[in-house]
Amino acid sequence: MNTPSLTAEQPASKLVRVEKTFKRFTIGQRWEHTLLLISFTTLFLTGVPQKYRNMSWSQSLLSTPERLHTIQQIHHIAALLLIAEALFHLGRALILLFRRKLPGDMLPNWQDVRDAGQMLKYLLFLSKKKPSYGKYNFEQKVTYWFLFFGIGIMMVSGFIIWFPILVTRVLPGGVVPAALMAHSTEATVAAVFVVIWHFFHVHLERLNLSIFTGRLSEEEMRTYHSAEFERLTGQKAEEKPSGGSQ
Amino acid sequence: MANRSLHRFVGLAIGAILACIAILAVAVFLAAPAKAGPLKQETDAYCLSCHSKQDLSMTLPDGETLSLYVSGDTLNHSVHGQAGIECNACHTNITTYPHPQISFKNRRELSRSYYEACQKCHPDNYTKTLDSMHQKAAAAGNLNAPICTDCHGAHDVQPPAQPRTNVPQTCGKCHTQIEEQYKASVHGKALFNENNPDVPVCTDCHGVHNIHDPRTAQFRVQTPDLCASCHANKELMSKYGLSSDVYSLYQTSWHGVDISVYKANWPTIWHSSAVCTDCHGVHTILKADDPASSVNPQNLLATCQKCHPNAGPNWTAAWTGHNRISLQRTPALFYVDQFYISFTPFILLLCIIYVALQIFHAVVVRIRRSL
Hints:
The complex is a heterodimer. Chain A is 64% helix and 2% strand. Chain A is mainly α. Chain A has a domain at 21-102. Chain A has a two-stranded antiparallel sheet with strand order 1-2. In chain A, helix 5 (138-162) runs antiparallel to helix 7 (175-204) and helix 9 (218-224) crosses helix 10. The radius of gyration of chain A is 22 Å and the shape is elongated. Chain B has a two-stranded antiparallel ribbon with strand order 1-2. Helix content of chain B is 56%, strand content 2%. Classes of the chains: A mainly alpha, B mainly alpha. The A-B interface holds A 53-54, 56, 59, 63-65, 68, 120, 122-125, 142, 146, 164-165, 168-169, 171-178, 180-182, 185-186, 189, 192-193, 196-197, 200, 205, 245-246 and B 254, 257, 260-261, 264-266, 269, 271, 308, 310-312, 314-320, 330-333, 335-337, 339-340, 344, 347-348, 351-352, 354-355, 357-362, 364-366.
């Protein structure tokens, strides 16, 4: 986090390439993502053999009843980690909300719809202009909110099938098979979504490591978050020819 | 002179009468066996000349009286009598009178010795019995465990399962309580009251000669398949207005998946996930709408609580039954299902199309630049 944020005014040798970076994520958010990554992956890897436990490959993996028990224990521990993460995330958001300090960057708005329309035109070669994005573009908002609700479904349905007898003391019994189906299906949906949408945007389209480093370079800011760049610096994003296209 | 000729006449007459009597006597003697019935074997007749006496008996060393009476009629009407099989086919050690001394202490010992003769002609079925629960019980010292003759009879062997009611009645000679339960069950009632040819009798589930212990883990995990051999048969079930989906839907249930995993991998490890009989009963199976049925809605909670003791009244609805997803029966499941077959695939499809467009655009841009 202590990367020196060199400004243009500072003297620098012409031999040294000066790269200005912009802070994107706090250390807390970076840890949150790491916890999410670890728990999500663990839950996925321990969940799939359970979902397909009548398949032979799953049965050769879970070759003893003890192994099945162990994999369920690991799944439950990872679930507790994810629940802790989610509660921390929500709690922090609530505290910031009460202090009127919750940044609204991640909230969906009409600009996102316009951006999506413009992006679609751009992708269909109907327009040469890419939309000018703020701190989070609509793709990133889709990622956040898809997983926000997906993890919500996984947590609620997971709790129901973990403690079905407790839950049916209050809720009707029909929620148990419904939760079982939701848990099993939503897991697949979330995994497909992460691989197709998230992995494409952060690994293939460009390697975006800002969630680990916490920072974006000036060039990345100009190219992918031009509106945010202009808001922060007061400069025009297109003054410098952007290096990266698609 | 006249006196002498009279004398000669009387002598001739007496001779003739005596001759007639002698001929008649021989004729009667020769005709006698034929009159007693169509016994085909000379030895049968020979044996029966003594053993047809109803009071023929002897006392065994243990004090039991052994009746030696054999009814010619019974013998004649048995499958063996009809096939012309003679006494010493089974009683191999007896060929003539006087018989060799027998050394059996009691009747059971005698039966357990004589039944070994069955394997001479029925080696396959005899060998099967060696792998049976009854044989195990005998090996463990229970000499009352049944042998061939206890079920099939000895001198009165009849074709098996004719009529089928004979089967539960035969097993019920020892398994009295189970016979009573079976007779009161939906299967038993249909058999005894309606002479239904489709319902299972004991042997349909337990096997015939190699009857295994039904209390083992292996038998348990095979139970659903056993029931499915009739209950997954669409043609058979439609005769009675029953669903033939019960098995396939069970197999997708939590219980069914558990059991299929154990069956495939660990058939010898006991697993308590419910099989058909845990909920429906074993010999006591009743129609689900029978008020006494363990799966009648009124009794269902108590049935669930056998395994889930802390379950509350809402719990029974967690079991979707052997029913497909429907708005009426399982609304929560119905809406979740609808959500995942319509809304979610739609959103995912949009994502996929968008990413595909991005990839397409990037490829086109790159190709253009390289031109």
